Each structure stands twice: as C-alpha cells, then as structure tokens.
Amino acid sequence: MAFKLLASLLALTAVSNAALVRKATCADGRTTANAACCVLFPILDDIQENLFDGGECGEEVHESLRLTFHDAIGFSPALTKQGKFGGGGADGSLITFDTIETPFHANGGIDDIVGVQKPFIAKHNITAGDFIQFAGAVGVSNCPGAPQLDFLLGRPEATQASPDLLVPEPFDTVDKILDRFADAGFTPAEVVALLASHSIAAADHVDETIPGTPFDSTPDVFDSQFFIEVQLRGTSFPGVGGNQGEVESPLKGEIRLQSDHDIARDSRTACEWQSFVDNQTKLQNAFKAAMAKLAVTGQDVSKLVDCSDVIPVPKPVTGQAHLPAGLSQNDVEQACAATPFPTLPTDAGPVTSVPPVPPS
Ligand code: HEM
C-alpha cells in the first residue's frame, strides 16, 4: 500500500515537472512556455510587418520605446501618500486617456506614435498597457546589439489618466530627475541604464527645425556610442541652438540633451555612465534588468504571465566602440573620479557628420 502511494506520488511529480518544462504549441506551430502567450504571435507578425516596416530599427521603434517609458513613469507613490491619484504606471493610460496625457508638455510629439499604435490595439484583443510594452520589446529586438527584453502579459485596462508633471524634462536638474525616478522605484544606476535607450533615438521637437536628429552616430544600433559621444566636449548646435533642454554636441548632425550631458558628469552617476563605454555585455544586462522593472511599474506581477520567449532574439552588435573620426581622447571630458575613461580607437576618415533618422 505504502509502495503504491509512493509510486503514484512519484508519477504525479513526474507529470507536473513535465508540465513545467513542456512548451505549448500554438495554432501556427510556434512554441512558447505558456499557451496564454499564443495570442501574441499574430500581433508580433502584424507589428513587425506593418508598424516596424518589415523589422527595422527605425523611427517607429524609437518612438515605441519612448512610449514605454512615458506610460510607465506615470506612477508616483509620493502623490498617493498625499492622498492623490499617483498614476497607474505601465497601464496604457497614455493611450486610453490620450486626450488628457498627450498634451502634457513632456509628452511633446508622442501623439504621433499613439495615433499609429491605436489601430493595432483596436484590431487585436490586447490592452493598451500590454500593447505598449510588447511593441517596445519587439521593436528593440530589431536593433542589433540590444538584449532580448522580457515581456509579461496581462495588464488590466487603465482606469484613470496619469497626473501631469511625472515625466522628466531634458531641462530638469539631475536632483529633480533622480528624485522623480526614485519616487517611481529606480536607483541612479538604473536611470543610467535606462538611458541606453537614447542609443537608439532621435529628437523631433527639441529643435523643431531639424526633426530626426539622433543622440549618437549609430541610432539604428544598440551600442555604447551614446555613452561615449555624450562624454565628448560639446562644440556646436546641430540646428538653430538656444532650445530649452539642449546643449552643444561634438558632432555635426547630432543633438545633445542637457539632462544626458549633466547625468554623464554628475558625481552620483558619472562612473556608472562611463562603465558602459566599451562594455556591451554590461550595457545589455543592465538595460534588460531596468526595462523589465519599468515595464511592470505599478502592476501586480503575480497576475501577469511571462511571455518573454515570444520576443525575437536581436542580432549581435555591429562595429566596435570608437571615437568618431576627427576627435581624440583629448576631447573626452573625464567625469568619473575613480577610473580613467577607456582608451578607444578613433574612426578613420573625415570628421563624422551624422545623418538624420529618416521618417518612414
Ligand atoms: C532623464 C530622463 C529622460 C529625459 C529627460 C528624456 C528626454 C527625451 C527627449 C527630450 C527626447 C526627444 C523627443 C523629441 O523631441 O522627439 C527623447 C527621446 C527619446 N527618449 Fe528619452 N528621456 C529620458 C529618459 C528616457 C528613457 C528612460 C527612455 C526609455 C526607456 C527613453 C527613450 C527615448 C527614446 C527611444 C527617444 C527617441 C524617440 C524618437 O526617436 O522618436 N528616454 N527623450
């Protein structure tokens, strides 16, 4: 009797172990860890083809990544403590309540991608909060050098708009930016890691005369050039200059945010910033971890299903960390007191000029 009981217990354990490792096969033959994730494959195919122009790391990817942040950072326990609504975090409120949130000053230009994403949400059975983070993770996978971001499914519909003034501005002080992120649950090191997003980014509205002006010389590759180039002495403005939140950049055609400039040089963040120069593995791991946190800000993770294996694996980084042609180590504004800036090769050829990110 005891033997029979033990045998059936063992059999039960074997079955449940198998259930843990067995993958679900979806209608189209693709597999995923959890059958609940199968709904994502048709959405993946649709957005790769029709939102990201056949799997590019272009403007819509950049805008979709920015949107993941602007939706998620709408979360303030400090406001909740004061008895006010602090926002629902990564809940899709930026799209659900777009008429309220897109006009917020810090959301300038975000209405573009909101307008582009809305029909995809309407077409597929998915909440705005899930779609925003899914599109961000899929989009980033199109950028060589990026990590495969996590994606958890199951955010409920947002119930209220986020309050204004929770999204950082490029003209905010480092104190203000770090305080805002701390309120939302992020350390200064995580802030620096999240800023790796500006490695695949451009500005349309900081200087309205030069839309699509990138923050680094490789806006379609997730690499450390952003961390290198922001550390170089600024010498000119790419456009008319004198814009709020903009400081001089080292390269023609490249724009620099005051906030990026200041965070790269602040004693609380400078060494973390420098640590990403020429360390692609650290850059990937830190960004992946910080994005995983950002994507579930304000959400009850115990109610979400891990569908990370639906996100495509990005291609490896192309090129190696370098100083742009025409510049040298002497152009580095050393800010980390503990360790010297890594010695990098300089690109051969004429002085680099960065072309704009084309609109699609
Ligand atoms: C200190 C915090 C931050 C500030 C002040 C800031 C500010 C800005 C500004 C002013 C722009 C240009 C918008 C335009 O003119 O079109 C921009 C673009 C962008 N930001 Fe940030 N940002 C911050 C953090 C982040 C984070 C945490 C992420 C993502 C995780 C992010 C992702 C992006 C992306 C991908 C773009 C490019 C959008 C495009 O090319 O269309 N940013 N950011």
UniProtKB/TrEMBL annotation:
Record-stated family: Belongs to the peroxidase family. Ligninase subfamily.
Organism listed in the record: Cerrena unicolor (Canker rot fungus)
Signal sequence residues: 1-18
Keyword Acetylation: no
Protein name: Peroxidase
Record GO biological process: cellular response to oxidative stress; hydrogen peroxide catabolic process; lignin catabolic process; response to reactive oxygen species
Site residues (Transition state stabilizer), renumbered to this chain: 66
Positions of Ca(2+) 1 binding: 71, 89, 91, 93
Domain (Plant heme peroxidase family profile): residue spans on this chain: 126-340
